[in-house]
Amino acid sequence: MADHSAVRNPNRPPTHPGEAIEDILLDVKLPKAEIARLLGISRQHLYDIIAMRKPVSPTVAVRLGKLFGDGPGIWIRMQAAHDTWHAERDVDVSGIPTIRAA
């Protein structure tokens, strides 16, 4: 049987958690204002996360994990992967040597 493991395109950034929230909200069928209220954050904060203008903080990750029942880890990992991908492209490290412990 052939191996069909997923291969991510390295030129495409990892999904921002806001995109995942948007997808979940389509299935949940609750207004964003209600989701924000349940999360204990402002509507604007939720809209900013969904629009990828703000990251998912650890505090919001804990709240999302409880609301959606999947725990905070997935939200933190998604945000970290997204942020790291962008940092690897934006930060010039050409002048920093690599050192090895003896």
UniProtKB/TrEMBL annotation:
GO molecular function: DNA binding
UniProtKB keywords: DNA-binding
Every HTH cro/C1-type domain range: 25-69
Alphabetical list of InterPro entries matching this protein: Cro/C1-type_HTH, Lambda_DNA-bd_dom_sf, Toxin_antidote_HigA
UniProt superkingdom: Bacteria
UniProt-listed PANTHER family: ANTITOXIN HIGA-1
Record protein name field: Addiction module antidote protein, HigA family
